[in-house]
From TrEMBL:
Residues 34-101 form the Cupin type-2 domain. This is Cupin domain-containing protein. It comes from Thermophilibacter gallinarum. The lineage of its organism: Bacteria, Bacillati, Actinomycetota, Coriobacteriia, Coriobacteriales. It comes from the Bacteria. SUPFAM superfamilies: RmlC-like cupins.
Amino acid sequence: MAESFVVNENDFEYRFGDSGPKYLMKGPRMNFALVQFQPGQDFQAHYHNVMEENFFVLEGQVDVVVDGVVHSLKEGDLIHVGPGEVHYVKNAYDKPVKMVSTLAPYQEVDKVEVENPVY
């Protein structure tokens, strides 16, 4: 049974218009998304019980706070976030940021929101 397929990012939309995730693939074993944030934008801090998440920065800069530790990432950086680690992403810079996000193993619902950190 063939599973291969091809999609183009232009056929998908970011969740919040010009920002948030744009899922090019959801399941059956992992999620693959492009994520974009405009200057000043962020998303609600959360963790996953089962899934691990990776962010790879394609363009721009971004702050990723993992369990209270601030990681300032730039183009070419990858951060791995394990299950149970609270993570918060904020574009504290003056240009948009674009990243790849992968989540695995796929779970339809595996997100627990928590209070955003102040840093």
